[in-house]
Design brief:
The protein has about 800 residues and is an alpha+beta fold. The protein folds into five domains: about 20-150, Agglutinin, subunit A (Orthogonal Prism), CATH 2.90.10.10; about 155-285, Orthogonal Prism (Agglutinin, subunit A); about 290-420, no CATH class; about 480-575, Phosphorylase Kinase, domain 1; about 580-805, Transferase(Phosphotransferase) domain 1 (Transferase(Phosphotransferase), domain 1), CATH 1.10.510. Helices cover about 25% and strands about 25% of the residues. An eight-stranded mixed sheet has the order 26-25-33-29-34-31-32-30. Strands 35-39-40-38-37-36 form a six-stranded mixed sheet, with helices on both faces. A four-stranded antiparallel sheet has the order 1-10-11-12, with no helix packed on it. Helix 8 (about 595-615) packs antiparallel against helix 10 (about 680-695) and helix 8 (about 595-615) runs antiparallel to helix 13. The protein is globular and about 90 Å long.
């Protein structure tokens, strides 16, 4: 009898061990999993359990791919309420509710089941990655009591539905993690908007960041080119009960997911059965993906890496002055006022490969064909444009727009046809010019081709010898003028950079990539490799070398040497471990590493460096391309000005010059330079003022737009100053420790530097005194590129008592 009890006890222990050591795919109400235990889907694709993200020690219940490296979490239950130790337990209640308990047996998360019909519930992890609660004998997904797919986090999985259940009112959308270490809801989300014809928007908070757009039968209009078209199938469901978007994988040998990153970008990842490491198929965004970046009635285009905006036919820029310097956000307006009496002569202009406009205020019909759609648009004088709803099989359905057309772009391929309403005069001009253009282009191309062929034959005969003579002469000239400047063999540089390995790439400048290099003796330096596609030719390269070789200042980057071999041209600089200024001040995480005292030191250091260029060096130099990415930071965060490829030397009493070739960076260019090609030391002062305001605010001038007044950073700062709210400009991460008087002084100096008229701006010697002294400063006047009309002109503006101490001007010191 005793032996029988002993055997029963042994069998009980054995089954208990097997229960705890064998991975299950489901839980019954009597079961639970603790921190060290896992649920594993039937085919072993997914695993569920407790984990700690990144460097965090907090514990979360998540779902991840089981055999993929690195750990790829696709869903988190208690993303807002972590467990602070390894005491967490997941259990299923008799009522079919999943619960997470902590060490005190308190519930920190529970599933919000809405079904009242519960009979023998179980929780099961499916091979789709969906954690479901269902009745034991009911596998119909429409009858699930609860499922994780209804509550997405940052990852869009195959079979998951993004969109709305119109019966229950449930909105299924993606929301980013706060950071790699914190899965709580971040700043970014991707949602389906039901207004007009449904479309996807990416949000930062409540503000629209980008628009994926509506479904056109083949793709979302914002992303017309699909990768892996043979392996994936996409579907958009739009009926009385549901509006959602989903995709399925046809090829079971691959894994493919979409993730909304903590920085707000969408990334697509791919794995295959042959490898467990994920491959990034896409990430980041080009400027045209920014919502309505070109304003209304304007089309965004990408020419290489450069963005341009063009008004649609029959429209002109609302503010031509802004348009000419690439400030496009105010868009375009009709060339002639609309008149419904003459609209019966209007026609339609066809644009191809288009991302159609925002459909949130559009009208749609699913049954019309294109001809009926076009007639419907032309019958209504308020109609601005029309397009097919579905572009498959020759097109079907109809979309009509009656308001301003927003967020359009033209792709190099893909996209769809869009028809703009235009008056008869525009249609005649458009068609009449086409034949002349074609004939002119053909004749011109033939003549140009013949001329180029003849010239190339003549040049190639002598080119090799000329290049060798020129290169050797330049090297000899360098050695003669600066004994400290070294010339390096290409092979040495290639070896020091790991053959220009991607892992050694520090960044991309205007004229080419920059790499970190390390010699055999351990010396580190930076290598700027001139790109063949850059605008910098041999003369500009020589200019940069000869200029920097003569300059020595603690706030200028030091040139160690150069390399010229064949078509390869490289500059060798001292290595800056903290990269560039923009790397810190515009990044949500890294900006917290630099406090206000360091910010102020950087502002003052840049000023001293520019003063040296303008006044104290052997030459008087105008940099012409001052911007945050050209300010490097050493190990102590001391600033050093770099990139002198566009710099120009002034001689004698010369104070300004003109150029027909604009070069520099929009957002930092002075108005007189952008509009007339006129540059001087005062144009550098303007660029410096922009940098100061960007450092104080943590915002980019060119990308910033005040949502209330549609002002850029300069205009926004001017308005805050005029309304005596200057301190509101300060970046929020700096407000824990700062000196208000220093911040206000920096803002005032920045505004003085960006004044519209060059003669109103201080020179750099005055700027250095202003920053480091306590004397009263003059009042700033209206900044460049300012168009807002609500603020009084500078002649009428007089600050009240809050800034009244600044009404006395200091003496401006003239540069020698």
């Amino acid at each position: 009898m005793v032996d029988n009890f002993r055997m029963l006890f042994i069998w009980f222990l054995l089954f208990s061990y097997l229960r705890n050591s064998t991975s299950l795919d489901s839980l019954a109400p009597s079961q639970s999993i603790r921190d060290s235990e896992r649920l594993v889907s039937k085919e072993g694709t997914f695993e569920a359990g407790f984990f700690s993200p990144g460097t965090s020690t907090r514990r979360y219940l998540g779902i991840w791919y089981r055999d993929v490296s690195p750990l790829t979490v696709v869903w988190v239950a208690n993303r807002e309420k972590p467990v602070y130790n390894k005491s967490g337990v997941l259990k299923l209640e008799e009522r079919g509710v999943l619960m997470i308990l902590n060490s005190t047996n308190s519930t920190i998360w529970r599933s919000n089941n809405i079904s009242s019909t519960v009979k023998n519930p179980i929780a099961q992890l499916l091979d789709s990655g969906n954690l479901v609660v269902r009745n034991e004998r009911d596998i119909n997904e429409d009858n699930f009591l609860w499922q994780s797919f209804d509550y997405p986090c940052d990852t869009f999985l195959p079979g998951m539905k993004l969109g709305w259940n119109l019966v229950t009112g449930q909105d299924r959308f993606l929301s980013s993690w706060k950071s790699e270490d914190d899965p709580a809801k971040g700043d970014y989300s991707l949602k389906l908007d039901l207004r007009g014809y449904p479309e996807f928007f990416g949000y930062e908070g409540d503000a629209i960041k980008f628009r994926g757009g509506s479904w056109n039968g083949e793709a979302l209009v914002g992303y017309p080119i699909h990768q892996l078209v043979q392996q994936l199938v996409y579907e958009f469901v739009f009926n009385k009960k549901d509006v959602y978007y989903e995709y399925k994988i046809l090829d079971r040998s691959i894994i493919y997911i979409f993730t909304l990153t903590p920085s707000g970008f969408g990334q697509r990842f791919l794995w295959t059965n042959q490898t467990s490491s994920k491959k990034v198929l896409s990430g980041g965004a080009d400027p045209c993906e920014n919502y309505a970046i070109c304003g209304a009635n304007s089309i965004c285009n990408m020419n290489g890496n450069a963005q341009t905006c063009d008004c649609i036919k029959g429209y002109v820029p609302k503010f031509p002055g802004q348009w000419n310097v690439s400030y496009w956000s105010n868009g375009c307006v009709p060339r002639n006022k609309s008149d419904c009496k003459t609209s019966n002569t209007d026609g339609l202009l066809r644009y191809t490969d288009m991302k159609i406009p925002d459909t949130s205020s559009s009208w749609f019909n699913k049954t019309m064909n294109l001809e009926e759609c076009q007639k419907s648009c032309l019958k209504n004088c308020s109609c601005k444009a029309c397009a097919n709803l579905d572009i498959r099989n020759g097109g079907s359905g109809c979309l009509l727009w009656f308001d301003d057309l927003v967020d359009m772009r033209q792709f190099s391929k893909g996209g769809q046809d869009l028809y703009f309403r235009a008056p008869a005069s525009e249609l005649v001009n458009s068609h009449g010019k086409n034949l002349k253009k074609l004939l002119g282009i053909t004749i011109g191309a033939i003549m140009l081709g013949l001329t180029v062929c003849v010239c190339m034959i003549l040049i190639l005969k002598k080119q090799g010898l000329a290049r060798i003579i020129d290169r050797n002469h330049f090297k000899h000239k360098l050695r003669k003028e600066d004994d400290d400047l070294s010339t390096f063999d290409f092979a040495i540089i290639a070896r020091a950079t790991g053959n220009f390995a991607k892992s050694n790439k520090l960044g991309e400048g205007g004229f080419g990539p920059v790499y970190k290099a390390r010699l055999l003796d351990g010396q580190e330096f930076a290598v700027k490799r001139l790109s063949n596609k850059s605008g910098q030719g041999l003369e500009e390269f020589k200019n940069e070398v000869m200029l920097i070789a003569k300059l020595q200042h603690r706030n200028l980057v030091k040139l160690i040497g150069c390399s010229i071999e064949g078509k390869e041209r490289m500059l060798i600089y001292e290595y800056m471990p903290n990269k560039s200024l923009d790397y810190f001040i515009f990044d949500e995480t890294r900006r917290t590493m630099v406090d206000w005292p360091k910010h102020f030191n950087i502002i003052c250091g840049i000023a001293r460096g520019i003063l040296y260029l303008h006044q104290d060096s052997r030459l008087r130099i105008v940099h012409r391309d001052l911007k945050t990415s050209n300010i490097l930071l050493d190990g102590n965060f001391d600033p050093k000005i770099s990139d002198f490829g566009l710099a120009r030397t002034f001689w004698g009493d010369q104070v300004e010059a003109n150029t027909n070739r604009l070069a520099g960076t929009y957002g930092y260019m002075a108005p007189e330079y952008a509009a007339r090609g006129q540059f001087s030391m005062k144009s550098d002062v303007f660029s410096y003022g922009v940098i100061v305001l960007e450092i104080v605010s943590g915002k980019k001038n060119r990308e910033f737009s005040d949502p209330k007044h549609y002002l850029n950073l300069l205009g926004h700062t001017w308005r805050l100053w005029a309304e005596e709210r200057a301190l509101e400009l300060l970046d929020g991460v700096l407000k824990e420790r700062f000196t208000p008087s220093e911040v206000i002084r920096c803002i005032q100096v920045g505004l003085l530097c960006v004044q519209q008229r060059p003669e109103d701006r201080p020179d750099m010697s005055s700027v250095v005194l202003m920053l480091n002294g306590e004397k009263l400063l003059p009042n700033p006047k209206v900044p460049g590129f300012y168009t807002e009309g609500d603020v009084k002109p500078e002649s009428d503006f007089s600050p009240t008592n809050r800034f009244s101490t600044n009404q006395i001007s200091i003496t401006m010191l003239e540069a020698r």
